[in-house]
């Protein structure tokens, strides 16, 4: 289990500091994802999403920076190539906002 970082010192909402990364190679780990993205700033959380039964990567993940500016820096350096694959990198949209957009608009 990876250590959780204390992001209580972060003043900006998590939604502004979180990045979605899609198209990950199945070999990509939390550690390799963090190692790649920390070149743009301090990461307070990182997760490669896994199937709960097989424990195999679902091919996407999230990172959360300590500051929103770091997200901007990472986005301005696209495309990103991680473990031999060009991945899709974009600002994460909170689940409640996605549901609102689908059902209320």
UniProtKB/TrEMBL annotation:
Gene3D superfamilies with a match to the protein in the record: 3.30.70.330
One Pfam family cited in the UniProt record for this chain: RRM_1
GO CC aspect terms: catalytic step 2 spliceosome; chromosomal region
InterPro entries (UniProt xref): Nucleotide-bd_a/b_plait_sf, RBD_domain_sf, RRM_dom
Domain RRM, residue spans: 17-93
GO biological process: mRNA splicing, via spliceosome
Coiled-coil region(s): none
Gene Ontology MF terms in the entry: mRNA 3'-UTR binding
Keywords: Repeat, Ribonucleoprotein, RNA-binding
PROSITE patterns named among the record's database cross-references: RRM (PS50102)
Protein name: Heterogeneous nuclear ribonucleoprotein A1, A2/B1 homolog
């Amino acid at each position: 289990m990876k250590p959780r970082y204390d992001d209580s010192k972060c003043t900006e909402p998590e939604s502004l500091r979180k990045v979605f990364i899609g198209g990950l190679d199945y070999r990509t780990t939390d550690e390799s994802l963090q190692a790649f993205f920390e070149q743009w700033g301090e990461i307070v959380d990182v997760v490669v999403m896994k199937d709960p039964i097989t424990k195999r990567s679902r091919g996407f993940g999230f990172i959360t920076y300590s500051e929103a500016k770091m997200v901007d820096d990472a986005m301005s350096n696209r495309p990103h190539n991680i473990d031999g694959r060009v991945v899709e990198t974009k600002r994460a949209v909170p689940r409640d906002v996605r549901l609102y957009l689908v059902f209320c608009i």
